[in-house]
Design a protein that fits this description.
The structure holds two protein chains of two kinds.
Chain A (H helix, E strand, L loop, with lengths): L12 H7 L9 H4 L20 H22 L2 H24 L9 H31 L1 H5 L6 H29 L8 H29 L2 H17 L12 H9 L1 H14 L5 H27 L1
Helix pairs in contact in A: 3-7, 4-5, 4-7, 5-7, 5-8, 5-9, 5-11, 7-8, 7-12, 8-9, 8-11, 8-12, 11-12
Chain B lengths: L9 H6 L10 E10 L2 E11 L4 E5 L6 H8 L10 E3 L2 E2 L4 H7 E4 L11 H11 L4 H14 L15 H13 L5 E5 L7 H18 L2 E5 L3 H7 L2 E6 L2 E6 L1 H12 L8 H15 L7 H16 L1
Parallel strand pairs in B: 3-8, 3-9, 6-7, 7-8
Antiparallel strand pairs in B: 1-2, 1-4, 4-5, 9-10
Helix pairs in contact in B: 4-5, 4-6, 5-6, 6-7, 9-10, 10-11
The chains are: A mainly alpha, B alpha/beta.
The structure holds adenosine-5'-triphosphate (ATP) and magnesium ion.
The site of adenosine-5'-triphosphate has 12 residues of chain B, from strand 2 and helix 2.
Chain lengths: ~300, ~300
């Protein structure tokens, strides 16, 4: 079977139809095909020039964000439905506990104290969803195809993490508006608001990477759903989002100290309410957590490709 | 095992300038991959010449998708097993990926984005400069005849349209090797013809190499210059469809006009399926049995 002559390469649809007239194609699919459209391929003849490493990572992050924003533009439902829960927290929990005055907040109304915690919470819920999303993308072939592009895994994960951050910032804006409507006096200083955006992006980058890392370990959507449910509430309650660390029992204080969400909330309180916060420490912890998260998720992403 | 590829035509030579002319578009050497105890690919040897349309055929579970996932760098394989235009898939991952266009077995367009946005994403992740992105995306959409539907969400597309959209996604980066895993699965005859029409046109225009798997033997016979029959992780026969048909006809003493590629497929794969429930049956005896059964069918 090695020396037999081979028919020439068919160079057009007609040629293919002409040379392939064997007994196998009695149905004659080629005759059903419309006459070939004349297509002029100019640009598709040469591959685009490769980018250098750091610009490549930036470009991928940009691409992932663009996709996220495009999806949000086509379907805003998620934006509205995700606004319901924070609104309820502020409206019911916040208003009630403002009246009860059971939680020591250092002199500010409880609703004000709660608002940054709820911003961090809703950002975290969005980010935690990314693990489920990446498994869904794996199952649907979208991720598989992206993994066959010149995109290092770290760049893909960084892109996703940044996209989670951008989506969270949009969500945070919605919560800020709701809080303002409920009479919370937040800062409108653009520099501080920019700081808020950075904090939310870093926090969401960490939580999305945490979730994508777990996705890389458990590999199926059902298991991840269960784990996602099991970790989000402890992360939320084991932080200073609802109450100050001082009123917690010792063991919970320890949990809160190890929980990046606490640092996110602390920074948000400092920036939005102008109360005392450990901004340097908060930014530092969040940046380190995000970096570790990206590293872990990149290492585990390969398991999803298999 | 592999047939020496005939020299490509002038168009192919011109289009592939830049790659070493003597390297095949794809070469797999003794490639194996296991999922736990399942040997999905078991000593695969394959060579695809530059510019040809090559069909990888085989029954369900033969290992076609696994082989393709190894070639597309999705599965980890040792160095020296797979080269694409002479580049080792294990060592030069990024460079290999820049040469590949890939359409996976399942429909994989993002349903929450429009057709255009789906193609744009791939233009972005292949580093198409912003200045030519729009024009390039337009060209890819035109090539697959989706210009009119480009503004609609991909979720509203029919199966045939999604497949053509995926082709546009793969084409926007001007790949040198286009890998299509069952591109016509689940499509009606018109949509199938439409997909093949797109492939043929783009191949004619660019001279790119195409590796395709399909379960439709008539399609393989019509559109592939060479095919390989894969069964249980290995290549059982390789050559031009006409050549394989003639070979089987000669072996059976049948009229070559009456032997179809489907008969060749049955001959190489069907017997294996029948033999699966009698593992003790010797290879030689199985050969005789399947030759008899193929001959009986053709009489
Ligand atoms: N992710 C996986 N985990 C475990 N086993 C797998 C996995 N993927 C494939 N297999 C097994 O490997 C073998 C080859 O599968 P593969 O998908 O490559 O076949 P195929 O030729 O593409 O079949 P089809 O024509 O049905 O697409 C099968 O036995 C399959 O069950
Ligand atoms: Mg398959």
């Amino acid at each position: 079977m090695s020396a037999a002559p081979v028919p020439p390469l068919p160079v057009s649809a007609e040629a293919a139809a002409a040379t392939g007239a064997g007994p196998g194609n009695a149905t004659g699919t080629a005759t059903l095909a419309a006459a070939p459209r004349p297509v002029e391929l100019r640009l598709l003849l040469k591959p685009p020039p490769p980018r250098s490493s750091w610009r490549l990572v930036l470009a991928r992050a940009g691409a992932m964000c663009t996709v996220e924003l495009q999806k949000l533009r086509h379907d805003r439902t998620e934006l509205y439905t995700r606004a319901v829960q924070p609104a309820l927290w502020l409206l019911i929990f916040g208003e009630t506990f403002t009246r009860i005055r059971a939680i020591p907040t250092g002199g500010i109304p409880y609703l004000d104290y709660l608002a940054p915690g709820i911003i961090a919470q809703s950002a975290m819920f969005i980010a935690i969803f990314y693990g489920i999303m990446i498994i869904w993308e794996r199952d649907s072939g979208v991720l598989t195809k992206l993994l066959v592009t010149p995109t290092p895994r770290a760049a893909l994960v960084t892109g996703k993490a940044f996209a989670a951050g951008v989506k969270s910032v949009i969500q945070a804006l919605v919560v800020v508006v709701i809080a303002a409507l409920l009479g919370v006096s937040l800062t409108w200083n653009p520099l501080r608001l920019f700081g808020v955006a950075v904090v939310v992006v870093l926090g969401s980058a960490f939580f999305s990477c945490l979730s994508m890392s777990i996705a890389g370990i458990v590999l199926t959507r059902d298991r991840l759903m269960g784990i996602g449910q099991a970790i989000t509430m402890p992360l939320f309650f084991g932080s200073n989002a609802l109450y100050p660390v001082d009123v917690m029992p010792g063991w919970l204080q320890a949990v809160s100290k190890a929980n990046p969400l606490s640092y996110e909330v602390d920074a948000l309180r400092g920036l939005l309410l102008g109360i005392h916060a450990h901004l340097g420490l908060d930014f530092g912890v969040l940046a380190v957590a995000a970096t570790l998260g990206v590293t872990a998720a990149s290492l585990l992403l390969g398991r999803l490709a298999k | 095992m592999t047939t020496a590829p005939a020299a490509g035509d002038a168009r192919t030579e011109a289009a592939t300038a830049g790659e070493p002319a003597d390297e095949p578009a794809l070469r797999c050497t003794d490639l194996s991959y296991s999922f736990g105890a399942t040997k999905a690919v078991d000593g695969l040897d394959l060579e695809v010449a530059q510019g040809e349309v090559f069909g990888l055929l085989g029954p369900n579970g033969a290992g076609k998708t696994t082989a393709i996932r190894a070639i597309t760098t999705l599965l980890p394989v040792p160095a020296g097993k797979i080269t694409v235009f002479g580049l080792d898939c294990a060592r030069k991952r990024m460079q290999v990926r820049r040469l590949l266009g890939y359409v996976p077995q399942q429909l994989s367009a993002d349903s929450g984005l429009t057709g255009r946005e789906n193609v744009e994403l791939f233009a972005r992740v292949f580093d198409v400069p912003r200045s030519e992105r729009r024009a390039r995306v337009d060209e890819a959409l035109t090539a697959v005849d989706l210009t009119d539907a480009a503004g609609r969400l991909a979720g509203t597309y029919s199966g045939g349209m999604v497949r053509r959209l995926e082709l546009a996604q793969a084409l926007v980066s001007a790949p040198r090797l286009l890998i299509l895993d069952e591109p016509t699965i689940g499509l009606d005859p018109l949509a199938r013809a439409g997909v093949w029409d797109c492939i043929a046109q783009v191949r004619a225009g660019t001279g790119m190499t195409v590796l395709v798997t399909t379960h439709y033997m008539d399609e393989a016979d019509e559109h592939c210059r060479r095919v390989a029959l894969m069964h249980r992780g290995r290549i059982r026969a390789v050559g031009a469809p006409s050549e394989l048909r003639a070979e089987l006809a000669a072996q059976l003493g049948a009229d070559p006009e009456r032997v179809s590629l489907e008969d060749v497929f049955r001959h190489h794969a069907g017997a294996g399926l029948a033999g699966a429930d009698r593992p003790d049956e010797g290879g030689d005896f199985r050969d005789v049995r399947r030759t008899r059964s193929t001959a009986a069918r053709l009489r």
